């Protein structure tokens, strides 16, 4: 009897590997879906090394338990824009090209081989066509408990990349997102380039690029977000993101989020929000962001909530941030708006109830970009990121409503400007109740006791 029970337990815990079928020039999504549907428990779903799989339609995975999706081969979206738009525009589209619907103990794993394990979004064609209609979002790692996202490599994605809505206990590490466009170079990086990348992701663009992407004509960043953190108990580390939107965005409902030891280039910073759109009640708590290099990003540390929003963002820390060529190293606003739907709202009589509490910006060091630039997402005049009466040399901007902020501090801040002109700040003393670490005014940066 005991032997029978042991055999049953062994069978229940058996783990098998199943290879995704591939047919040249055909759509491999149906075969992938059939395979993962039949083996949604105790299995590795393997994309074989040496094979480029055609993921020509979106996939919605079933609920998974003890499953690893392992990408040793390359994956490609359709190269034709209209083909992708037709899929995204259909009523059956699940919301992203790869959609997880829930499960436990799920791993999404790429490859450490510099030549294989790439997911090619063909974003170059979209960028060249200035096309943003029905863009395909990437990987929705949704409602997963005890998950891992590791060693993934995304090449020229078209829309946001990784989202963890409703996830619990997820570790995302050693992932690479390259959403940079160079219209004179449309091929995948050379093998030598990728081999070097495999050795040092963090220093990649310091070593190989002398141009300043997005702020000059030759290099452009694709307007895609890196990681969208939604859920509880999430750890992001050792990630390398080159993109044109938020490197990290922490959304409503997120709690206990850690981001560390990473590199961001070209995007919109390490962001909380946007929160409170349409009067939504926001709730974000316990976020710790540290040890990150920000290069040629529009923002460094950023909080954004909409005029008229509600709720609370509490216990948020950005620490040990190095910024290079960044116009807005520290930026907090409760007046976020969408340039795509009209002009900036008149906030004279607006009521804002999105409260911020226990915000700490500590040990920031770097160079503020104070030379003229036009950031690539600007479609209005003035640009959506323009700050009235700013000098362009502000290391910190606190754009707050009275009675909504408590215990917000900037400590150990060390900055210079590209032109070597004095560093400034913007802050309205009537909106804060504590020593914020510098003299709260629109003027030169003067460190105070709390900032030491």
UniProtKB/TrEMBL annotation:
- Enzyme Commission numbers on file: 3.2.1.67
* One of the Pfam families matching this protein, by short name: Glyco_hydro_28
Give a Gene Ontology cellular component term annotated to this protein.
extracellular region
Q: Which GO terms describe its molecular function?
A: galacturan 1,4-alpha-galacturonidase activity; lyase activity; polygalacturonase activity
What's a GO biological-process term for it?
cell wall organization
The source's superkingdom equals: Eukaryota
* Localization, UniProt: Secreted
Which reaction does this chain catalyze? [(1->4)-alpha-D-galacturonosyl](n) + H2O = alpha-D-galacturonate + [(1->4)-alpha-D-galacturonosyl](n-1)
What are the UniProt keywords, alphabetically?
Cell wall biogenesis/degradation, Disulfide bond, Glycoprotein, Glycosidase, Hydrolase, Lyase, Repeat, Secreted, Signal
Q: Which residues form the active site?
A: 268
| Family to which this protein belongs | Belongs to the glycosyl hydrolase 28 family.
Please explain the role this protein plays, according to its UniProt record. Answer: Specific in hydrolyzing the terminal glycosidic bond of polygalacturonic acid and oligogalacturonates.
Q: What name goes with this protein?
A: galacturonan 1,4-alpha-galacturonidase
This protein's species is Mycena rosella
Q: Which lineage? A: Eukaryota, Fungi, Dikarya, Basidiomycota, Agaricomycotina
């Amino acid at each position: 009897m005991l032997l029978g029970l042991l055999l049953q337990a062994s069978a229940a815990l058996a783990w098998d590997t199943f290879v995704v079928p591939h047919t040249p020039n055909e759509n491999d999504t149906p075969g992938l879906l059939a395979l993962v549907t039949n083996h949604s428990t105790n299995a590795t779903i393997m994309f074989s090394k040496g094979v480029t799989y055609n993921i020509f339609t979106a996939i919605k995975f079933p609920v998974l338990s003890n499953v690893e999706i392992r990408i040793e081969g390359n994956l490609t979206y359709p190269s034709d824009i209209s083909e992708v738009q037709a899929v995204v525009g259909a009523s059956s589209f699940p919301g992203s090209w790869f959609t997880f619907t829930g499960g436990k103990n799920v791993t999404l794993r790429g490859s450490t081989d510099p030549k294989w394990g790439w997911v090619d979004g063909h974003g170059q064609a979209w960028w060249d066509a200035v096309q943003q209609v029905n863009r395909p979002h990437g990987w929705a790692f949704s409602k997963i408990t005890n998950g891992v996202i590791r060693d993934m490599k995304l090449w020229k994605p078209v829309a946001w990349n990784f989202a963890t809505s409703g996830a619990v206990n997820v570790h995302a590490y050693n992932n690479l997102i390259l959403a940079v466009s160079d219209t004179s170079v449309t091929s995948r990086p050379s093998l030598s380039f990728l081999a070097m990348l495999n050795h040092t992701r963090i220093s990649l663009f310091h070593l190989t690029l002398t141009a300043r992407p997005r702020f000059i004509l030759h290099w452009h960043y694709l307007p895609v977000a890196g990681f969208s953190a939604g859920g509880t108990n999430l750890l992001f580390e050792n990630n390398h993101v080159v993109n044109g939107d938020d490197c990290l965005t922490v959304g409503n409902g997120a709690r206990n989020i850690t981001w560390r030891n990473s590199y961001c280039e070209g995007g919109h910073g390490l962001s909380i929000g946007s929160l409170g759109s349409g009067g939504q009640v926001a709730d974000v708590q316990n976020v710790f962001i540290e040890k990150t290099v920000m290069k040629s990003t529009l923002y460094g540390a950023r909080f954004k909530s909409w005029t008229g929003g509600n709720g609370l963002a509490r216990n948020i820390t950005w620490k040990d941030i190095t910024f290079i060529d960044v116009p807005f190293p520290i930026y907090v606003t409760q007046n976020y708006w969408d340039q795509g739907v009209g002009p900036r709202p008149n906030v004279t009589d607006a009521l804002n109830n999105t409260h911020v509490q226990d915000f700490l910006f500590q040990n920031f060091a770097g160079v503020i970009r104070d030379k003229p630039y036009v950031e690539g997402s600007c479609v209005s005049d003035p640009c959506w990121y323009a700050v009235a009466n700013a000098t362009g040399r502000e290391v910190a901007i606190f754009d707050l409503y009275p009675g909504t902020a408590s215990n917000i501090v900037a400590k150990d801040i060390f900055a210079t400007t590209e032109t070597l002109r004095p560093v400034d700040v913007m802050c309205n003393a009537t909106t804060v109740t504590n020593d914020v670490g510098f003299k709260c005014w629109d003027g030169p940066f003067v460190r105070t006791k709390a900032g030491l």
